[in-house]
Write a structure and sequence with these properties.
Largest interface: A-B, 74 and 74 residues
Radius of gyration of chain A: 24 Å
Shape of chain A: globular
Largest sheet of chain A: 7 strands, mixed
CATH topology of the largest domain in chain A: Aldehyde Dehydrogenase, Chain A, domain 1
Helix content of chain A: 25-40%
CATH architecture of the largest domain in chain A: 3-Layer(aba) Sandwich
Strand content of chain A: 15-25%
Strand order of the largest sheet of chain A: 16-17-18-15-14-19-20
Oligomer: homodimer
Distance between the termini of chain A: 68 Å
Chain lengths: 531, 531
């Protein structure tokens, strides 16, 4: 048992006058792990902010190549500590070591860091725009203050506040990061922060480019994200916490990017139900149970027509929910919060078909849970019936008609994803055409004949969507280089002498590969028309 | 004297049960103009919202070419009514018919509409991104609900809610607009709305693509922008109103883009003061007095060193402020609000050098006003001393040292622009290098040896900046195509069958000219790698 240090102003230090300590818990054995992590005081948070601001000022004159070197080195340092990381993340989250942690999430994380390194060096992300006649030039650039990152509990590496997508995006855009660990995997976060800080030292970045605290009182969190020296905030977590942070940041005029909640509706049209019910039932169950249902893109609502095929499909799915044992949940709060959500759904008129209670056995677990509700009941109480249950809990909405299905699509809240399954022979074409435009404005990513849980890290990805799935419908938290734009300001230069411009805006293309919009055309060339 | 109609749900109609009427005033003769414009009731605002939402749904399947045709036709309709428009705008705002209204602002407005038409047709604005391996494709697309536009009082055409930059951007991105007229030029707005609605009919767009109300009670404004069917809001106006709208929109999770206030600091470095004081004084006065100082980019604060050259320069500027007569202000509230701001500056320690009171004569006017304040006084009360006075009012900050100048740069709030004047022989180079990074994070557009009041409508323009100048540091309200992205959501398609994709994301480039990011490279080609 030992008191852990925080990473503050370029040093691992004991927390001064901590407000208390906490430990991560092992979700299988339901016991506290030995390490004690401090709850930081306002005084040391203010110290971090000042150190972060100083680092932001210093980073202004540090080359993107160096940021790239840091990100690459960090990825390498993570790989060097794979065994340790897999061990501790498994202990803290109960996520399977293989394949999930070792073969899927860890490589995804280092891949994101390396993609960010490439993007930082190549610089096209900055969308440099040059108009030669007026000699006005602009590009996206760092915010001028540190980015605060709050990571969620469900991806100990890939969305970790000190190694995940927000971290990589913020750093690649030239900002320091103040990471707030998720208390569910503080030990994992500590090792990742060590690997990051080693990379900071190895590559000679300002030492406060990466800082880490484990916990703080809620009012200190609000102080942190609204502080005048802060650049922006990235948050992935619950809607309740997200909305509180959003309100404070909005009021202070500080950008905040949130990923808060999503029930990821799946429409299965009649032709598809007839054509391949077993195949779709299998895909659905796999998607619902991935990560014990604790994915932001978990399909929480399935909309079908209530008829023979529909009910047959529902039975197939119910079988799978029944016959499979649930996985261990991430934390002690899991079963309770799922039970609350299920109770909310039932109170609002949903009928329980499978599961509906905590699972027996050693770890935190909740039975795979399936519910159904008639379409008109859903329409009459749509907001409550879209309550997210963070686990393998799925609500079938049984619609009386195609008309009602369209009405249901219109009543959906903002979501990360929405899927439509359709047949291959064209019977579903008309209804697809009607539902698609309704769903389009409600979701960030629209899928066709595909379940939503796979989130590829490619430039075209949108892991975002309309409120309340996120705080803004124009940004994605996954997909480099787009995700970097969240942590950047638009910097315009008017009549600035060429030698005073950032390299990205000078006549010579700084990398020979950087894409720039010159006089309205994307180009990798030097600017020649101007003087 | 006649009661004017509103443009609602595709018809010019009398306001039902209006909450009252108002008239625009002629600022020269200080008299009410004859037309009576209604203050709309909640009932009819709700009708507009529903009609706007229906139009948004219909626009989903209307081609960008048609939106372009509308914008072009609208520009032509405006030109056909030039004489009427110049007459009424001059009556309502006192802005000079020539060259300002006829030769500058009206052509700028039609030019913006035509640029938006080109952008809509060409489609590169949508930043289509295609990854062929994963078959994920995304682009920006319409919001799915109408955009509410509030126009300011100072540009009756170019920022008009029914013809200006926000309008053009929102329409070109595929959204209907609900325009809220600025009460200062309701008659001008009426003619522009007529020209717009004629173009709607000429080109066969959904009739509620353009709607117009003149006024409403503040609580109805909040209801309007937070309504679930609304897409987003664009606002240009005062900080007080802007912050109220922002708070409501933020809470409802509705995007809002604001341009609220800016004092546009100008640093004149020592070498430049020595080298060309008379030239810079002339440029400064011209910039300060443009539009009677009622420009969002008006230089409200000038920072110089307090020494012989600095004081000599201040005298030169003071002469110009003294010897020139002020122009007529836009409205009756002008002199009062300037007087309040000047009193605030004086109470905070500024010393009045020139002007400081309402001007005599027939129209609303306030004497050109110059103030000064010592650098340390500014630093001790920086927030209040950055109060914007919307007129020809400029505060000189006299700094004791280069160090103090840097401290002043650090204390600036978010601004649209910031300028640095430097000499041509290199004496100012070192200080420029120190001040530039500090100023960079505070402003949207950084100028070198140039005053801020000219805002070119080019893609590289940033007419935006950090809070409180605007609500988000990553967006510009001027400069197509960038300004369109404010009124768009990121639409991602995952595994969607090709014939179901929007044309912009199919394999064939829909215009042959559209730039798309295909597998990480910008290209105008068709997609060939995929299948």
């Amino acid at each position: 048992m030992s008191n852990q240090k925080i990473l503050i102003a370029g040093e691992w230090k004991n927390s001064r006058n901590p407000e208390g300590f906490f430990s991560s818990r092992n979700p299988v054995e339901k016991r506290e792990l030995p390490d004690k992590f401090p709850i930081s005081s306002r005084e040391e948070i203010l110290e971090m902010i000042r150190a972060g601001k100083k680092a932001a000022d210093e980073l202004y004159s540090i080359s993107p190549e160096k940021m790239g070197d840091f990100l690459d080195r960090f990825a390498k340092n993570i790989e060097a500590r794979t065994e340790e990381l897999v061990e501790i993340a498994h202990l803290e989250t109960a996520l399977p070591k293989d394949t999930r942690l070792r073969a899927v999430e860890l490589p995804r994380t280092t891949n994101q860091l390396r993609q960010a390194a490439v993007a930082a060096r190549e610089r096209s992300w900055a969308r440099a725009t040059i108009d030669t006649k007026s000699n006005i030039r602009s590009k996206f650039g760092a915010l001028g203050g540190p980015v605060v990152v709050f990571g969620p509990n469900n991806f100990p590496y890939a969305f970790n506040s000190v190694a995940g997508g927000d971290f990589a995006s913020a750093i690649a855009a030239g900002n320091p990061v103040i990471a707030k660990a998720n208390p569910g995997h503080a030990g994992t976060t500590k090792i990742l922060a060590e690997a990051a800080f080693d990379a900071v030292n190895d590559t000679g970045l300002p030492k406060a480019t990466v800082q880490l605290i484990y916990h703080m009182e809620p009012e200190e969190g609000l102080m942190l994200i609204t502080h005048p020296m802060i650049g922006a905030t990235g948050f992935t977590g619950s809607r309740t916490s997200g909305l509180k942070l959003k309100e404070a940041a909005d009021k202070a005029g500080k950008p905040i990017y949130l990923e808060m909640s999503s029930v990821n509706p799946v429409f299965v049209l009649q032709g598809a139900l007839r054509e391949r019910p077993a195949e779709i039932a299998e895909e659905l169950y796999t998607s619902c149970s991935l990560g014990s249902g604790q994915f932001c893109t978990n399909p929480g609502i399935v909309i079908i027509e209530k008829n023979e095929e529909g009910l047959g499909f529902l039975n197939l799915v119910a079988e799978k929910f029944k016959e499979n044992k649930p996985g261990t949940l991430l934390s002690s709060s899991g079963p309770k919060s799922i039970a609350d959500a299920v109770a909310t759904l039932i109170n609002a008129g949903a009928e329980l078909l499978v599961g509906g209670k905590e699972a027996e056995g050693p770890g935190y677990a909740y039975l795979n849970t399936l519910l159904k509700v008639p379409g008109d009941t859903f329409l009459n109480n749509a907001k409550v019936l879209q309550t997210e249950a963070f686990g393998t809990v799925t609500l079938f909405v049984l619609s009386e008609s195609a008309d009602e299905m369209r009405a249901i699509a219109s009543k959906l809240e903002g979501n990360l994803t929405g899927s439509i399954y359709s047949d291959k022979v064209g019977e579903d074409d008309q209804l697809y055409k009607q539902i698609e435009p309704l769903l389009r404005t409600k979701v960030g990513r629209l899928l066709n004949d595909k379940m939503p849980t796979s989130v590829s890290v490619v430039p075209s990805m949108n892991h975002g969507g309309p409120f309340p799935a996120t705080g803004h419908p124009g940004f994605s938290s996954v997909g480099i280089p787009g995700s970097m734009l969240r942590f950047a300001s638009l910097h315009c230069y008017d009549n600035v002498r060429e030698h005073r411009l950032p390299k990205e805006l000078r006549n010579k293309n700084p990398t020979g590969k950087m894409w720039r919009l010159i006089d309205g055309e994307w180009s990798q060339a030097n600017v020649t028309a101007y003087q």
